[in-house]
Here is the input.
Amino acid sequence: MPVAMITEREFMQFQRFIYDAAGITMANGKQALVSGRLAKRLAHYQLNSYGDYLRLLESRAQPAELQVAVDLLTTNETYFFREPKHFALLRDLAQDARDKNRTLRVWSAASSSGEEPYSIAMVLADVMGIDGAWEVLGTDISTRVLQRARSGHYPIERAAQMPQAYLKRFCLKGQGSEAGTLLIERGLRQRVQFQHLNLNAPLPRIGSFDVIFLRNVMIYFSLETKRQVVARLLAQLRPGGYFLIGHSETLNDINDSLAAVAPSIYRKP
Here is the structure.
């Protein structure tokens, strides 16, 4: 069956679909991305058009397919130790928590395939000990990337910015058929919890946190969605806690309750 072309109307319908499902604003001109990522689903159901696939989703005849579509349309690539200044701050906070005998809880709120929460865990394990008083929660709307995150198995090039000492201490190097990959060491893997969560919906009971990472995801949200998501997350941040966003993002016009410490680093009064 030849690959169907996506029409302008169908593309606009998928823009609405992903906004309703995940609060994500898909930019115009992304027709190739949508058709490329969903073409196999059309083939799977032997459908002739993207409109037919959208009708399948809306009919709820295949409830699990909704999550498949969200997974395919929201997945983005990441890597270990992105934006090093955030991990330098985290190291300082971990040392302070260790010195004061306090537990440190960190939430990676858009954890994708797990590189961010494992980077966080490496810093905490290094400073506070692998069995120390720290917790890391990674959440994402995509069940597919969470599955990959739990496996802790990555292409080695994702670790280009990882400190060499951490690479040796916390990662196993792939051999033979696994050459060119790394596996997060089991002890560290077991210290990171992953959970399916939609930031655009009421949050489950996950407790309060000392640090929340919400990096490189707000670019996909409308202004109103950004305001709602940030307010929702800040309710889970302890007074004095830190809120970290992507270096190309800002909270201007989104939230004025936080004190700016440095670009992309905010603190809750």
Q: What stands out?
A: The mean pLDDT is 94. The CA atoms of residues 176 and 182 lie 12 Å apart.
